[in-house]
Amino acid sequence: MTRVGSPLVGAASQATGLPPFVIDNWIGNYRRKKTSSSQPKNKKLHTKDLSGYNLFCRDLLKNKGSLKDITQKWSTLGEVEKRKYAEEAAALKVQRTSDDMSPETRSLKVKKHLKQIKTEVASLEKLGVETGVMMFDHQKPFLDVLEVSSKGASSFFDRTDVLDNFALHFKGNSSSTSAVKQPVDTMVKKVQELFNRKYNEAGGRGRLPYISIQNESIIINASGLPDGITLKKPCHYGRKQLEVILKNAEQISFQINSGRKIRPTVEDIFNVMCGNDMSASGSSGKRKSYTVEYKKAIVEESWGKNVVQFCKEKMLDHRLVQKWRAEYTNLSEKVESGMAKKRKIGCGRQPMYTELESLVSEWVADRRAKTLVVTRAQIQEYALAVSPQFDISPEQFKASQHWVDNFLERNDLSLRRSTTLFRLEDAEIVKRALAYKKFVDDIDFSKYSLCNMIAMDEIAVFMGQAAQTTIDRGASSVYVPSTAYESARVTCILTIRLDGTKATPLLIAKGKKEKIERVSGIYVLETEKAWATQDVIRK
What we know:
Layout: H1 8-16, H2 20-38, H3 52-62, H4 70-76, H5 79-95, H6 103-126, E1 132-136, E2 145-149, H7 151-159, H8 162-169, H9 184-201, H10 210-214, E3 218-223, H11 239-247, E4 253-258, H12 266-273, H13 292-302, H14 307-314, H15 318-326, H16 328-337, H17 354-369, H18 376-386, H19 401-410, E5 414-417, H20 426-441, E6 454-462, E7 469-472, E8 489-497, E9 506-510, E10 517-519, E11 522-527, H21 534-538
Parallel strand pairs: 9-11
Antiparallel strand pairs: 1-2, 3-4, 5-7, 6-8, 8-9, 10-11
Helix pairs in contact: 3-5, 9-11, 13-15, 13-16, 17-18
GO molecular function: DNA binding; DNA-binding transcription factor activity
Keywords: DNA-binding, Nucleus, Repeat, Transcription, Transcription regulation
Main location: nucleus
């Protein structure tokens, strides 16, 4: 049993008494561990040649020498000993020739040089130089020509027989005539680049817009395509079609024509502003809502026109428009009487647990009458706790977040913030900001060094932080009870010098010592009111 979702998972769950998802997790962990352990590690190519100094370090470490003594001992080593290490290093370098090289090392070296060639070709292409490189590997089991080229050179190779002639010289086959077929992904990419190039030659910009072609907002006449092949995304072609398109690449040309564009009416714009989606056809699986004004306007606009053609332009179902035509009198009466946007009394889905919601609403009102905080989580917990009183099982009622949202909306409740906090008026804030700016502008900073200029900020840390939000109805003021510890606080001062050096934090607490002490790496000072006054700053 090594597959998640196997039928044996249920039997294992019954036998062990564990939930099925636990067994699925175990299976997933086992497969990931097995896959990671079975994957071979990528081999790295070490191309740096060893020097005499490296061989000396090797011998010294073998004899249990220390790293600290290597430099000193190497400098005191005689010239004869150094020459021996140099000769040994040269001999090892000679051994690393291609004749004695293992196939794995040779393959890694070839990949390394190919990567360097690609980098150089890309760099030359940025400088406006088109470059093409052809390579043939004699030690490969199959004969093939490798190509590394810029975009312009690649186009040249596609239009000429250079690769074929190069391959025939070595009695091989190029990638276009090889017995080993090209991957379909490579052919799709080539056809895509071909279509984009033809589109740009015809006056377009960027990539070929397949979606605009499908929507007929742009019409492209493609000439030169093989018989039976139409213009579409290259990924929708088969292998034979891709081969034929690439073979006839020179005969293909595009001509761009502006597609048919339907000018939207006032009703269309109004409908979009109201949120009605007109971009999809009337046969869409998702139902849409249309206002009475829109229905009446569509019926009036369709008089004297072909209904089928009119509905195609409006992207509506003709049966829906015919139904609106039959109800035109009723629609006109609703618009004239002002009942167009009103729903019928009692329509829409009704709450499933009205008695439960009534009890929860009374509980919320009772707690707020006692000025107690009510949160969404408390509403969920209370609803789940009292649901058995109404014979509601936990499987039927989950008290989800969606239910809480609908419950708050149905009972005119919302999350409110306490209004008992003092806040400065906007005019006072602007006044203080301007005064501070004037104070800073008057300072001559050239008289002081950066290490003597300090940026400081203070913040009050309260011991009793009560919740400032609660569920309540739309009252003008919201009261939240306190914890009676609002006055218990300390003041924290954080400073940094303008040269980037951070200073040690300072805590100011209530007390009578009035002496600065260092406690656990910070300074602590006791004052009568725990305020950051001028005397405290001077200390």
